[in-house]
From TrEMBL:
It comes from the Bacteria. It comes from Lawsonibacter hominis. It holds the Pfam family YjbR. SUPFAM superfamilies: YjbR-like. One of its GO terms (molecular function) is DNA binding. This is MmcQ/YjbR family DNA-binding protein. Keywords: DNA-binding.
Amino acid sequence: MNLYPWLEDYLMAKPGAEQDFKLEWQWQRYMVRGKLFAAVCTPGPEHRPHAGRTMVILKCDPRLAEAFRAEYPDIVPGFYSDKRTWNSVYLDGAVPEQVLRDLCDMSYQLVAAKLPKYVQRELTE
């Protein structure tokens, strides 16, 4: 069950957003200029405690990542990613829509900020 039906459109509305499906990982990936800023996946039964729970994986400021995890039980350290700088949000959970939107925005901004300046200018034009 997806309680956030707007999520894909929201991610794809970001300037320069691209998506693909990574077959080996079974991840729907969202990128800007080839750099991952979000991924949606449903880990299999071998990945406890995540098994069967669809999640979106988002980059997060390390200073805020733990604060979000402490406040919302459905935000956990990033699945198959750097636990310090990525969070996973369970899409069957109870994270408020605005918080998830803010996390998506932050993830995109953190990734876009690492792109070359000329690319950042192109994205804002």
